[in-house]
Amino acid sequence: MPEKEDVPIENHEAAHRFEARFPRGTAFLKYHYDPAGRIHLDHTEVPVPLRHHGIAALLAEAALDFAKRRNLRVVPVCPYVIEYLDRHPERSLLVDRDAIS
Known about the structure:
This protein is an alpha+beta fold. The chain has two helices and five strands.
C-alpha cells in the first residue's frame, strides 16, 4: 500500500467521479451537479482489500478541494462524506446546509 501522500487522485469529469487506481482495484467518489450548480457527493466505494488505509478520506479531500477551487457549494449525500465532514468541521464551510434534508 503506497503512502497517503503518494496516492494520485484524478477527477474523471466525464464519469463524474474522483478516482484512485491501484493494482487491486479502483476506489472512487461519485458526484453530480444539480441545476443550481452545486456538487452532490453521492457515493464512495473502496475495494475491500484497500479499505482502512485512508483512501476514502483522500477522495473526500480531493472532492472538497475541487469544490473550493471552483467556488462550488457542496451537498454531501454519501454517508462516508457526511462522517468525514463531522470529523473535519473546518471543511464544512463549503456545505450548502439548505440543500441537506
